[in-house]
Amino acid sequence: MYQKPIIIISTYPSNKKLFDLLEECIDTIGDLGYDILIVSHLPIPKTIQNNVKFILYDSVNELLEPKNSPHVYFWDKIFQYKYYIGGHALPITRNIKSSLNFAKSLGYDSYIFLDSDIIFNNENIKQIKNLIDEAKIKNKKMVLFYPDQYIVSDCNYKNKGPFFIETDFFIGDIKFTLDNLKFPTSNLEWEKSKMCYNLEVSFYTKLKDKFDDLLLIRDYTENFFNIDNLNQNRYGLTVYDVLKNVDDFSPTFICHNSEFNNKVKKVLVYSNSKLILERILYPSDWSYIFLKYDNSKLRVEVYDITDSEDVIHEITKIYTLNDKLKEKNDKNYKGLISFKQNIVI
Prior knowledge:
Blueprint lengths: L4 E7 L4 H14 L5 E6 L5 H4 L4 E4 L13 E5 L3 E6 L4 H17 L4 E6 L6 H17 L3 E4 L6 E2 L6 E2 L7 E5 H8 L5 H6 L6 H9 L6 E4 L3 H4 L13 E8 L5 E7 L6 E8 L2 E8 L4 E5 L6 E9 L5 E10 L2 H4 L8 E5 L6
Parallel strand pairs: 1-2, 1-6, 2-3, 7-11, 12-19
Antiparallel strand pairs: 4-5, 5-19, 6-10, 7-10, 8-9, 12-13, 13-16, 14-15, 14-17, 17-18
């Protein structure tokens, strides 16, 4: 165990910012000296391929259905919404399973798994080496970050406690991980394998009876490594999407920059190429606009505004406001919004 480790970087580089983060991630984690495997649901350009040992591209990027997707709530005196974060846990479990099986087939026995927006420094590389050495000495099958400060509901929403294991960075024995976590690769498998409402609680639930085999770090990853904003591209900190009004399912575009996000966002919304909304969103800011199912093309552009006031493109979303978008079971269904006395369900 830990005799032939491989570094696995999970990525979805959909814009230049994320490509830059991926390149920086490779440069920093590469100081460990192990072979690197990139696993992605988007093609990886040749310039990046040349810097790693393996590329694993999976064209299937199936997201979790809304009923299985993690969600966030927001409410104030004007409106409230329930927003499905996007179901990215399923593409991640596909990435983990396919990359571990690939590495196993080539004779690797262990791994360091991380998201591509994690940027380590030289001191962190020493810390990672120390964790691997400690796991070897103590014969621990995985190294996991299990913060005792973070209290959440359990898988069945019956109890609250520290039922949360971080999934953006972890280390482990390949065989033990595959045998005990049974990663789903489709919505059907997700339901059959009894996954929880998010990946972190699922890790806890599936491993709670194996704690003696685990090296558990009772803190957050960013605290342990002493890096602010360790993950530079987190889901759920901003919302910019078309939600359905709980009364009549009419479309409403909502943009909301969470109070927990330390970034300033610029949001532009076009209807058939005509600008209909332009907002600068500081943390806690929000805005919305009512829409109609009129077959118009809606284009949403979101930008990061840096401390130096540079404007960096983050994402573009395109919608066709037709009857298909109105269907609750449509893949673009992202949640419900209500105003005044109505209740979000």
